[in-house]
Amino acid sequence: MNIAVLGAGLVGKHIALDLSNDKNYHITSIDINSTNLEFLKKQNIKTLLCDVSDSEKLHRELTNFEIVVNAVPGFLGFNSLIEIIKCGKNVVDIAFYDNDPFELRDLAISKNVTAIVDCGVSPGLSNLLIGYAASLLDELKTVKIYVGGLPENKDGLYDYKAVFSPTDVLEEYTRPARVIENGSQIVKPPLSEIEKIEFDRIGVLEAFNSDGLRTLLKTVNAENMVEKTLRYPGHANKIKLLSDSGFLDKKEILVKGVKVSPFYFTAEMLKRKWKFIESDYDITVLRVLVEGSKDGHRIKYQFDLFDDYDKKNNVHSMARTTGYTASTFVRMMANDMFQKRGVFPPEFFGTNSQIKSYIIQGLESKGIIVQEKKIALN
User: Fold this and answer.
1) Chain-centre distance of CA 266, in angstroms?
2) ω before 151 within 30° of 0 (cis)?
3) 344, 349, 350, 354 alpha-carbon torsion, rounded to 10°
4) pLDDT given at position 98
5) How far is CA 35 from CA 18, 41, 268, in A?
6) Of 64, 7, 110, 48, which is closest to residue 343 (Cα–Cα)?
7) CA contacts within 13 A on the Cβ side of 14
8) Residue 278: what pLDDT?
9) If we measure between CA atoms, which residue out of 282, 370, 275, 342 comes closest to residue 103?
10) Helices 353-364 and 324-334, packing angle to 10 deg
């Protein structure tokens, strides 16, 4: 089977590498960055230099592929997804864009395409777990997601390093956070309602509102639902200072006769501060809480994931947890375990015990372990 991976960044390259381990798959990595592709060439993976924003060229290049993985930065992600579907290609999508993927449902059906969207760690694995827990309950009361990718060691400045596009990180820090409160969708400022939470193996982290519910806002019927990003304490206030000072404004300003977007200037500067170097290791922390009732009894399901840098294979934890979730969904799709056409987020598959088990077991085979607790509340 021929599989194309669009994007050869820190996550995309490891999706390609993981899938290339299966002799039944012929992998091609597609990117505009020749340096990224050179790394994969050395791993004997076929590469293709291509600007994915050139839709005409992209259509030509995707002709001979059965499945496409969309692992490009968020600002390219939605348009890339549209073009992949227009090509009639099944797709697993991890791009972090602010558009509604359900807008493409009719297009996907008309092109006989299965599009699995938001297929990373969160959104992604978290959605799968929520769908699974919801299927075990008669009624949902509360859903909470806490997730963060962090450097193993603090640097004393931002205490943060970005394993994916800094632009996408700043998008997360600037998008208003959609949450569900008392059955209604409301919007809260990003970086707001900071709380402190203690985790085994790492200690106290801060959690703040972020716009990560995405498809869950339409697919899960819970009275209260929120997603919060995890960082080392103090990080949110540093980003707030940048935001309040105008450094995260996208509107261009004139600087010595040159138009500059403060947002993209800041992203470029932080790229240097947040870049992982060879000696940097990262960790991923995920906690999902789903509370509801079953047969009149109040129950809470708690799912915890702690993952760290793979020092043996030199793979960042965020690349593992995001990329291997996506590659496992690709294998599920390649094995014809799901054949419906349209747009499907991971929570949809959490209700299918066979597929849910396949994904969880696939991650476990990579050493990515989700701990599950069932807690009686009355």
Assistant:
1) 22
2) no
3) 180
4) 86
5) 19, 10, 18
6) 110
7) 22
8) 66
9) 342
10) 130
* pLDDT the model gives residue 40: 96
Nearby residues of 109 by Cβ (< 8 Å), 6 or more positions away: 341, 342
Mean pLDDT of the region 36-47: 95
Q: Are strands 177-181 and 184-188 parallel, antiparallel or unpaired?
A: antiparallel
For the stretch 221-238, pLDDT in tens is 999 999 999 999 999 999
Average of per-residue pLDDT values in the chain: 95
**Residue 298 burial by CB count (10 A; 0-12/13-18/19+): exposed, middle or buried?**
middle
Is the pLDDT reported for residue 256 higher than 70? Answer: yes
43 alpha carbon, distance to own chain's centre: 25
Alpha-helical segments (H) within the chain: 12-20, 34-41, 55-61, 74-86, 105-110, 125-135, 166-174, 216-219, 235-244, 262-273, 317-318, 324-334, 347-350, 353-364
Q: Please say if the pLDDT value at position 60 is more than 90.
A: yes
Helix (H) or strand (E) holding 285: strand 282-294
Question: What average pLDDT does this structure show over 347-351?
Answer: 97
Question: How far does CA 114 lie from the centroid of its chain?
Answer: 19
Please report the domains of the chain, with CATH numbers, ordered by start residue: 2-120+319-368 (3.40.50.720), 125-235+271-318 (3.30.360.10)
The closest of 110, 114, 82 to 95, measured between CA atoms, is: 82
